[in-house]
Amino acid sequence: MSEWKKGDPMRISIDKIKDAKIVNCSCGGVMFSEKTMFKRLSAFISPSGKEELYPLQVIICDKCGKVPAELNPYDMVPEEYVATSIKLDNKITK
Ligand SMILES: [Zn+2]
User: Fold this and answer.
1) Residue 21 covered by a domain
2) What is the pLDDT of residue 72?
3) How confident is the model at residue 3 (pLDDT cuts 50, 70, 90)?
4) Which three-class secondary structure state does DSSP give residue 25?
5) What spacing in Å lies between the alpha carbon of 23 and ligand 1's midpoint?
6) Is residue 10 situated within a structural domain?
7) Distance, CA of 18 to CA of 36 (rounded, Å)
């Protein structure tokens, strides 16, 4: 499992970003949207001692609506919503 991290855009040149591989979903999609998923915290584990909803930001593929495995930090997303595999060796055609 790899953790998705936001890089610091100020510390890397545009050319290096341009040469980097595009993350794509197993369906081929390259555009993603942020969605919110909620976990229900029981009174036993909730810091407030009451049942609470805990929001989690997840990234979904705009094409198939699933979460690429690479963008599923902590494996929180239910399996049926996770895209099977991710292609990292995609070729960028110019
Ligand atoms: Zn997809």
Assistant:
1) no
2) 82
3) low
4) coil
5) 11
6) no
7) 29
Q: Would residue 3 count as lying in a domain?
A: no
Supply the Cα-derived Rg of the chain in whole angstroms: 17
Is 8 a member of any domain?
Answer: no
- Gap from CA of 47 to ligand 1 centroid (Å): 36
**Host domain of residue 62:** 27-83
- pTM score, two decimals? 0.64
The total number of residues shown for the chain amounts to 94
- Looking at residue 31, its amino acid is M
Distance 74 CA to ligand 1 centre (A): 19
Specify the number of domains making up the chain.
1
Q: Does the pLDDT value for residue 93 go beyond 70?
A: no
81 C-alpha to ligand 1 centroid (Å): 10
Residue 41 Cα, ligand 1 centroid: separation in angstroms? 29
The string of pLDDT tens digits covering residues 14-55 is 888 889 988 889 899 999 999 999 999 999 999 999 999 999
- Residue pair 61/27 in contact (Cβ under 8 Å)? The answer is yes
